[in-house]
Amino acid sequence: MNAVKKVKQKFVNSKSVTQAGNFQLESNERPEVTPNKYGSFRWVDFETPFPVGSEIHILVTCITFNGADTLGLRIGGVTNEGFYIRFNEVVINSQGDESDGRHIEETVSYTATSVA
Fold it and tell me: How many domains does the chain fold into?
């Protein structure tokens, strides 16, 4: 069995900023299929805005299992103040049914990092 290698990451002269949080999210609308259209998405504010001009990287995951259908998380419209997010539920069955977009409330966690 191979051991997990620990990698040491060093940031020299960086202004790295990281924030994390969680929130409740549910979906009551059909999946959004038009790029850059966020009408059915929820806006999430960062507790503290990132510096203007920062490149922001966001990792999101669902940390509960309240609904049986497989879901995905889609984010977009990221700014230094927050981002849009929604569930894109996936339904795969032998009848070829599509997702209706609805999913029960789950807890979502995020980590956002930037380097100015």
Answer: 1
